[in-house]
Design a protein that fits this description.
This protein has 2 domains: 190 residues, Serine Threonine Protein Phosphatase 5, Tetratricopeptide repeat, CATH 1.25.40; 134 residues, OB fold (Dihydrolipoamide Acetyltransferase, E2P), CATH 2.40.50.120. It has a 5-stranded antiparallel beta sheet with strand order 5-4-3-6-7, with no helix packed on it. A two-stranded antiparallel ribbon has the order 1-2. It is built from 14 helices and 7 strands. It is an alpha+beta fold. Helix 6 packs antiparallel against helix 7 and helix 9 packs antiparallel against helix 10.
Length: 347
């Protein structure tokens, strides 16, 4: 079969400059490698082994760009692969791998001018590759209607058709930690050595430390996840102590901040804030003195809008409950405006 195909190519070339129709039927791009080697139909350069580079200088940036091209090639993303191979060629124009990648990519995408460019450059970089890519080079010239140039190149391809079939072209990712150096007559990869790290303590970011009493302000309380106006309805009687407060019942009249909550919600009724935790001497629970009047209106700052152990918890304990007086409401709205919370108030 190989002899018959070679004879067919010779017959075509014997006619001189062929017509497009004759070459299209005899030298179709899908048969390129089959005509040369009697193997599977693929680009001849796909079978070209990598030749030694001509004093290349690899850099980490170039390896990264090359790896992008290889990844795109293996995904058959020809447009991206071509652009990345052209990018690395613009950085270093004497590395064989770059031109092999460009040639194979553009044989697949049918960008014949790029195939010609890559093949001609490979011919100057490595005489062995000049013959191995001759068939692709000739086919690209034919596709560009450059028949007079294609004929001698295809004839040269016939002279190497009986050479052993090189392995298929399969580009692989290169290790970024290996960077080649350029020495006269040498191309020796050496490990990439990163700069020696100097042990320095991490920068200290100064934190503003508030005086404990500063936490007990509206300016800090409005950072709570939820703020509501609510009416007090009562509490659950039981074993009540300074550090075991009752669960009180409330009815929300307006949500000023935070997610939607049920209109009626339970609230742990703390008897102290989280700054002044000491129990006063002789403390004893007295409903009349310690619990609000039923039906009274309050501002409730809920630190986290999720119940804990069956009840919501207020910001900084008892401070999170503030009477809904005119002064308190005006102060609250002014501070929320200053922090661009008015949008939530209008919802």
């Amino acid at each position: 079969m190989l002899k018959e195909r070679l004879a067919a190519v010779k017959a075509v070339l014997a006619k001189g400059i062929p017509t497009r129709k004759l070459l299209a039927s005899t030298l179709c791009i899908g048969c390129a490698t089959a005509l040369m080697f009697g193997g599977k139909a693929s680009a001849a350069a796909d079978n070209a082994p990598a030749a030694p580079d001509s004093a290349p200088v690899w850099t980490v940036t170039m390896i990264q760009s090359y790896n992008k091209a290889v990844t795109a090639y293996n995904r058959q993303d020809w447009a991206t692969a071509k652009n990345e191979f052209r990018d690395v060629i613009s950085r270093q124009d004497n590395i064989v791998d770059f031109y092999l990648g460009l040639l194979n990519t553009c044989m697949h995408s049918g960008e014949w001018d790029q195939v010609v460019f890559a093949a001609e450059k490979l011919g100057t970089l490595d005489p062995v590759l000049k013959n191995q890519v001759a068939f692709d080079y000739g086919m690209a010239l034919y596709k560009l209607n450059r028949y007079a140039e294609a004929v001698p190149v295809l004839k040269r391809a016939l002279t190497v058709a009986d050479q052993p079939i090189p392995p298929p072209y399969h580009p692989t990712i290169k290790d970024e930690q290996l960077v080649a150096i350029s020495n006269p007559g040498a191309n020796t990869p050496v490990p990439y050595v990163p700069p020696v790290a100097v042990d320095k303590p991490p920068p200290v970011i100064p934190r503003v430390k508030l005086d404990p009493e500063q936490y007990l302000t509206f300016e800090q309380a409005i950072k709570s996840e939820s703020i509501v106006l609510a009416t007090y309805e009562g509490y659950e009687k039981g074993d009540i102590h300074f550090n075991n407060p009752p669960i009180s019942q409330w009815h929300i009249t307006k949500i000023l901040k935070g997610p939607p909550l049920n209109a009626r919600f339970p609230l742990r009724y703390e008897f102290h804030d989280l700054v002044n935790k000491a129990m006063p001497a002789g403390w004893k629970f007295d409903e009349a003195k310690m619990m609000p009047k039923k039906g009274s209106d309050w501002i409730i700052f809920i630190e986290f809008a999720s119940a804990k152990n069956g009840a919501f918890e207020t910001y900084q304990g008892s401070y999170g409950r503030q009477p809904a007086t005119e002064d308190n409401l005006n102060d609250l709205y002014a501070r929320m405006d200053a922090h661009n919370m008015r949008e939530q108030l209008n919802e």
